[in-house]
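[retry 2/3] Penicillin-binding protein: previous attempt timed out, resubmitting with same input.
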Amino acid sequence: MTFIILGLSGLGAFAYLYSSTDLPDPNADFQTNTTFLYYNDGRNQLGSLAVQNRVTLDFADMPQVMKDAVIAAENRSFWEDPGFSISGIARSAVSIATGGELQGGSTITQQYIKILYLDSGQRLSRKVKELFLAIKIGREMPKEEILEGYLNTIYFGRGAYGIQAAAKSYFLKDAKDLTVDEAAALAAILNNPAGFNPSGGPEKVERLLGRYRYVLDGMLEMGVITDAEHTRASAQLPEFPEVPVNDRYGGPKGFLIKSVEDELIAQGFTEAEIQGGGLKVVTTLDKTMQTAAIATAQKYTAQAAADADGSPDAAQLHAAIASVDTGSGAVLAMYGGRDYVSSSRNWATTDRPAASTFKTFATIAGLRNGFSLNSLFNGDTFTPRGDTKTVRNEFGWEYGPVTLRQATAESINTAFVDMTEQIPDGPNEVIKAANDAGAPRSRGWDANNRIALGAAEVSPLNMANAYATLANGGQRHTTHMVARVEDRNGQVLYEAEATPEQTIERNVAANVTDALTSVVQEGTGRRAAELGRPVAGKTGTNGVDDDITSAWFVGYTRQISTAVMYVAGDSGNEDLDDYKRPQDRTFFGSSYPLMTWVDFMAQATEGMPVEEFDRPQEIKATKGSVSASPSPSRTRSASPTPSPSESPSEEPSEEPTPSEEPTPSEEPTPSEEPTPSEEPSKPGNGQGQGQEPAPSPEPTTSETPAAGAGPGSDPGDKLPPPKAPDLGPSPSPTA
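[retry 2/3] Penicillin-binding protein: success.
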């Protein structure tokens, strides 16, 4: 001990610190450690995490098997050691003297001190106090009292503190009724409740099994179980019954609370700190916007079910809303479903085919690779060189040569396939643009000439963030929901910082935004103009065979980017047409998704200043044909091939221009790919002909055919136009 005393400035200092260190009340600082979650104003409460679930037991009432199991797991020399490791204390003294962290806190006594008496700060005074508490408690407190306090306060996961709450939470029984294998399992779990969570999947169960056997080995070594008990219990983990979910997660807010928990863990907070550390967590969520998201999503899902033919189940129609601050990546609102308890799938973070909303990324790729918004592409049906599948626009419409601006506004399939083929390594350039914007690669991202048409799956949250990058001048942020974390004393433990990265060229982002304003001003998303401020956006409707499996609107103002997605069924791959409006031929992205977006954004932007987008500088084309006049508005002519039944039109709009994009499933050979999903999707090649998709390495995902025609052309109210004016020479489709 001489080294320690000298390291702490002599015997006198040691004696003074020892005598002035009082033993705190074992329960004083551990009664009110509820973690509270707040909206971004820091005042309105979103929820709370684990008001400590504890039933205190006297030492005599604690089952001996649980005492033995915990000692075997955490500190086999507990009954003999002085409460601390001498070598560990020596390391601590050196570490304290050099400004490092306290070392050697592995005994039950030291764990008890850290859990019960001290905060998680790294101040020198706290480290010294912990050291002297360990020495003093080890000398002055009976071992039985230390173990009793430890077993009543240690965190076991699932919001359970102490062995009684743990027994209830994991095995639905009192601690006194625990068996050898159940006690050993709980003792194993307490070492790392998140890492050894028996409900956390096969990998965590396997890790738990290893730790469980370690505990049983210790119990045998200590002589507290027999060889027969050891052999029987070691064979496998005990059965963990289904435990009812706490209603704290009930309703739509459960998705938010779970997302906050996950983000806190990702930021390095332990489960014990989150569930019982008395934290104040201020989120980025705006209470007014979140209320609007819930009300709007539930309003339109109910309306769709009520107005549709055949009285479909409203509970099987899922609307997802994700809204992001374009300048920081802060999540302002998120609606993932009606009730987290009844179904924990968060539709706002679930990937589904992005349909024509993915064409935005092809526009980025085109502008990066020598084209401009005035570049001309083939707007007519054609078969790419070396391909076996014809590319068509919905209803067989023929547009002639079209500018990239018009192709974006009217979501013209053939033009995007033509452009992708003309870009060197075009499919991968489109994928790179999507990744640069903030859409991570997922299912259906096959690098083929139809990649722009939207078989690629993206979640609403990631799509909102990708479009936010465009609104933010090409600077990408990482989405986050936690703004600030404070301990129970108000000390800030974590604060989110904006770390923008310029991933898309600023003028490219401005030009793409300019093109997307055409969608709102004259194309498929005109309803969004009702917002009365500059808006850019894109509709999307995905079809597989005769089914519509996802429908979208993603749009943004300068300040907020919001994605709305509709899917149906437990898998999110069922046919949305059961919920289409009576006047519609199918479930369009410009119907309920756009209606939902406008309703939500009207409330979200109320009172915000009207801000203009960046003014784009014209990008001059360095290749291909260019329109003689800047970005002309072109009309289309109907193909002679489709029959009337193959050309559904959407509800007529106030202007004789389209309000939606073509849907591949409505024409004889629509340009569509099967929808990859987490659940088995319906067979077909997206061309309405029932071709079997290529085998998938994953049994739950339909693979996109290598040269498939790709989804993404959304149906709309297309009125047969007059003959289009001449725009100059028509570009030849290239391969």
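[retry 2/3] Penicillin-binding protein: The first strand starts at residue 35 and ends at 38.
[retry 2/3] clearing retry counter.
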